Amino acid sequence: MTGREGKRMTTTKELCERLDALEKKARIAEDYVAIANLQAAYGYYVDKGLWDKAADLFASDGTLEIAGRGVYVGQDRVRQYLHQLPEYGDGTIFNHMQLQPVIHIDSEAGTAKGRWRTLMMVGFLNKEGRWGEATYENAYVREGEKWRIASLHGIINFYCEYDEGWHRGGVPLLRSTAGIAPDLPQSFEYEAHPKAVIAPFHYDEV
């Protein structure tokens, strides 16, 4: 083998390694966009009370836990829970913005975790209007070729009357949902503002 042939083989190996690395980065980038779209879609469906569409975003064994009301296990139970929430219609606002994502993906395993912030505006004409803000610590799983929510955990940071503001305190968390009991107790005990709460992080560094 001449020196030139040896050099050509080494170059080919390096190119293959670089190609593999680029393919992995491209897959992670594609997965990141898919997961971001998935979570944003959830927020848009909640905005309009499209509970079936929101439930369809969950994995078959996915879980939902919101505001310390316990854990609902499985897509069917998530759907049942969501259908206990008020219907969307005239005079109703359910704005549910999904912001500030920190996402970590294991593309080969088909799993991911993400931290989000949601800003909420909830109101019913001539009845009530409230601001809310929560941290989501979620997990995701690839089912077939699509990403789905494996677990959605919303930790409420504050919830208050719109005209009084958070400087006057907040509305105590509702610990149950009428008509449907959870499958499991809440992950940890907490109360929202004015009590201080820090949602557990799925990461130590980025």
UniProtKB/TrEMBL annotation:
Residue ranges the record marks as coiled coil: none
Occurrences of domain SnoaL-like (ranges): 29-152
InterPro entries: NTF2-like_dom_sf, SnoaL-like
Signal sequence interval, chain numbering: none
Pfam families xrefs: SnoaL_4
Protein name listed in UniProt: Nuclear transport factor 2 family protein
Organism field: Alteraurantiacibacter aestuarii
